[in-house]
Amino acid sequence: MAVQLRNEIVLRAPNRAGLLADVTERLYAKSVSVLAIRAYEEGDEGVFLIFAESSHLATEALELIPDARISATTVITVDRPNNRGQLAAVSRALAAAGINVTEIHMTAGESPIAHMVINTEDNVRALAALQDL
C-alpha cells in the first residue's frame, strides 16, 4: 500500500457553461496527467479539486483561467487493492486514531488499485495512522 502526502490544487472561478471544458483543455495543453478530480458548484463559483501528477504544471495551466483563484492544499493519497473493505479499513484506522476526515474522494472502477485522496484535520497524524495498515 502506498500512502503519502501530496499537493492537491484547488481552483475557484465564476461558474459558467464551459468552465469544465476550459479547465480540462488547459490541463491537456500542458500535458498534465490528472489522477483525480472533483468539481462542484458552490454559490456562483465552480470549485475544482485537482490531484495531478505534477501540481506545478497544473497550477501553470490553470493560471490562464480568467478570474480564477488557485491554491494548493496538502492531502494524503492512499493506494489500496481494489477489493471490498479497503475504504472501511482506511476509515476505521483514522477513526481509531481520533482523526476527523474533512474530505475524501476516490476512484477504483475495474482497476486493481483503489486511489483515495483524503484530507483530515491532522494529515501528519493521519499519515502515521495509515502507515500501519
Please tell me about this protein's structure.
There is one protein chain. The chain contains 4 helices and 6 strands, in the order βαββαβαββα. With 133 residues, the chain is of the alpha+beta class. It folds into 2 domains: 67 residues, 2-Layer Sandwich (VC0802-like); 57 residues, Alpha-Beta Plaits. The radius of gyration is 16 Å and the shape is elongated. The mean pLDDT is 94.
Comma- or semicolon-separated keywords:
133 residues, alpha+beta, VC0802-like, Alpha-Beta Plaits, six-stranded antiparallel sheet, 4 helices, 29% helix
Short description:
The protein has helices at 19-29, 55-62, 86-96, 123-131; strands at residues 2-14, 34-42, 45-52, 69-81, 101-107, 113-120. It has four helices and six strands.
End-to-end distance: 8 Å
Shape: elongated
Helix content: 25-40%
Mean pLDDT: 94
Q: Please provide the count of β strands.
A: 6
Instruction: Classify the fold: give the CATH topology of the largest domain.
Output: VC0802-like
Give the secondary structure arrangement, pairings included.
Elements: E1 2-14, H1 19-29, E2 34-42, E3 45-52, H2 55-62, E4 69-81, H3 86-96, E5 101-107, E6 113-120, H4 123-131
Antiparallel strand pairs: 1-3, 1-4, 2-3, 4-6, 5-6
